[in-house]
Amino acid sequence: MGRTGERTAATGLLVLTLIQGALASSAVKVLPSVNPAKVGDTLVLSVSPPTNLKSGSWAVDDSLILTWVGDQQAVFPSHNGRVSVDLSTAALTLSSVTVADSGLYIVQSTDPKIKANATITVLEAISNVTLWANQTSLLEFNDSAVLTCSVSSGSSPSYTWLNGSSVVTASERAQITDGGSTLTIVNVTRYDQGPFTCNVSNAVSGGTSHSLNLTISYGPDGMDFTVNGQNTTSFITGSNLTFFCSAQSSPPAQLQWAFRGEAVNGTSAELELYGVTEDQSGPYSCLAFNNRTNMFSNITKHITIAKSPLSGSKQQTLSVWLLPFLLLAGFLFSLPDFGGSLSQMH
Fold first, then answer.
1. Residue 216 has pLDDT above 90, yes or no
2. Contact between 122 and 98 (Cβ < 8 Å)
3. Which of 20, 90, 319, 343 could anchor a disulfide with 47, C-beta 3.0 to 4.6 Å?
4. Secondary structure letter of residue 237 according to DSSP
5. CA angle, corner 74, sides to 73 and 77, nearest 5?
6. Is the pLDDT of residue 70 over 50?
7. How far apart are CA 280 and CA 234, in angstroms?
8. What is the model's pTM?
């Protein structure tokens, strides 16, 4: 073979080697045993497919971790005592990982020529989720609640707020700030009492705080007034009446009954009247007062008490039936013999 033929063969071999190297590099991948990893885990970075590299190196970002040639390996001081390489597969084992171990891990070799990488993230586990509020006793429509969620440790925390079993989403009244760790409820209402919990998580762990309840004073409002358990307002004389008054209020409202604008001896939810008469007709009021909100509310009903319309008709019907008998009796007593017979009987 001439020199021209030798050069052509050498060129072809070089091109083939470059093509094979490129194919090898594109086909090789780094597969982590877990990603993201948790602080303290042991991480294994495998080369796929497993390859027997006569020499090579592992690096993270721009810093070498270790190199090897044949059966000899050298670990750099930054990772001394924590890393090793399987010379038969090129797999890297990194123990007791820390957040600082996050980065781009690169394996490469010249025999055979390969280069592959994988980005690894190491996260610190979430621990000790705590929830507290600036104040827990508030007035409806007047105060705002600020709830803060914190953790003792944890990387890249994500916060979820719950009111009971419902997720709290950001709105005009529910403001979520400080990366999600603070929930501000503006102008609280009676429906904002909780229980509130805070869930904190990242890709490797999670935790939930204890529950927290708010005491919200409200009312009195939404008053209701019934008589004998009904909304009827007309009754007959002689009835026994039980008035019942209720109000939506926290703390429970103080109640006072009044008749025709004058207070009566009744400060409980019930007012009882026995054998009522017509002169007990009139307006009955229930007044509610909340000593925490300093608010009043009242409800009034006009109660009518009258004789039964049936009583007169029954008396008239009875008279109609008795009249013939009374007339007959009078007629008999007017007869002389009938009267004399009665005298002899006595």
1. yes
2. yes
3. 90
4. T
5. 150
6. yes
7. 12
8. 0.71
